[in-house]
Design goal:
Layout: H1 2-10, H2 12-33, H3 42-83
Helix pairs in contact: 2-3
InterPro entries: Hypoxia_induced_domain, Rcf2
Domain HIG1: 1-79
GO biological process, one term: mitochondrial respiratory chain complex IV assembly
Length: 84
């Protein structure tokens, strides 16, 4: 798990781009296979897929910001404890 975290922290933009592309693909696949329930034009399916992917990207960015904040606070508290 630590190797994945290290890779993600070294390749942040690649990770976010991969998540975005995966979300677009998953949303398009979902809308295509459930098309019988909601008949949408392909252009509208693409718009919905992009909206879902953008929402997921914002969630991932928020999580990354929270993780960065937590990591920074934890390391600064450890440094203070060492200096005392």
């Amino acid at each position: 798990m630590e190797a994945v975290q290290t890779w993600v922290s070294n390749h942040k933009l690649t990770s976010i781009g991969a998540i975005w592309a995966s979300a677009v693909g998953a949303s398009l696949a979902y809308n295509t296979f459930t098309g019988a329930k909601t008949p949408l034009k392909p252009s509208l399916r693409l718009i919905h897929a992009r909206m879902h992917a953008q929402a997921l990207t914002l969630a991932v960015l928020s999580g990354a910001a929270a993780y960065h904040y937590y990591e920074k606070n934890t390391s600064s508290k450890q440094e203070e404890a060492v200096h005392r």
